[in-house]
Amino acid sequence: MIEIKTLATGSKGNCYYITDGYTPLLLEAGIKFRDIQRKLNFQTRDIKGCLITHEHKDHCMGVPDVLKAGITCYLSKGTKDELGIEHHRLKVVENKKQFQIGTWTILPFDVQHDVSEPFGFLLVNSAGDKLLFATDTYYIKYRFKDITHLMVECNYSQKILDENILSGRTPKVLRKRLMRSHFSLENVKEFLKANDLSKLQEIWLLHLSDSNSNEEQFRQEVAELTGKMIYIP
Questions:
Q1: DSSP assignment, residue 99?
Q2: What are the structural domains of the chain?
C-alpha cells in the first residue's frame, strides 16, 4: 500500500513524500530541508532517496541540504549539469533505464518542459503497486499499463488562461510559454483517456496555477471522466 504526503506543491516549491511501508522516498526537493523535516515531524532518517525531475528552483532548491543530510538524489545528467553541484550522493540516471532503491524499481522517462533534460518517473514496488509521477510537462508521449497511483501536474485550463489573457490578468507573453511547458486540464484528460486506468486507485492533481486554474472544476471534470478518487493538495 502506497502512502503519499504532499509537503509542498506549486510555483513556490514542490516536494512529496511517498512510501510503500518499506522504502520512503522524496519526490522533488523544492523547499528547504528544514521545512521537509518539520512537515515530516523530523522523521527523515529513513528516507532512502530523492528523485528530481528538473533544475527549476521550485523543484530542487533544497538539494544541497538534502545531500548534506545523507539522502542520495537521482536526476538526469542535463539536470545535474544545470545545477552545477558535485557530490558523491548525486546520482545521474538515464532515460528509460531502470534503477533500484530499496523495494522500488524506478524507470525515468523523458517529458516535455523548457529545461535541459527533464524526467518523469514510473515507480513499481515489490507488491506490484505502480506509481506514475509526472510534473512540469505539456504532454506525455508514452502510455502506461496497470498504474495504481497517478501523481500528475494539472496546471491550468486553456479556457481560464485565455479569459485571463483577454482581461489582462495574465500577461499575453506567458501564453505560449505555459502551453509549451505545463500540463493543461484538457491535455491531462486526453492523457487519461489514452491510458489503461483499470487498476488506478487514486489521482493526485499537482502544481495548479494560482491564477489559471479552478480546483473544484478540475476535481469534478477528472472525477467524472475517470470515476476515481481525486486529491488536490
A1: E
A2: 3-231 (3.60.15.10)
Average pLDDT over residues 93-103: 97
* Assigned C-alpha cell, 18: 511517498
Rounded to 5 degrees, what angle do the CA atoms 125, 16, 52 make? Answer: 80
Q: In angstroms, what CA-CA distances link 143 with 27, 140, 190, 192, 197? A: 21, 8, 11, 9, 11
Asked if 20 contacts 1 with a C-beta cutoff of 8 angstroms, the reply is yes
Residue showing cell 526537493: 29
One-letter amino acid at 18 equals I
Q: Is 186 exposed, middle or buried (0-12, 13-18, 19+ CB in 10 A)?
A: middle
Q: Which pTM value belongs to this model?
A: 0.94
Q: What cell does 125 get?
A: 514496488
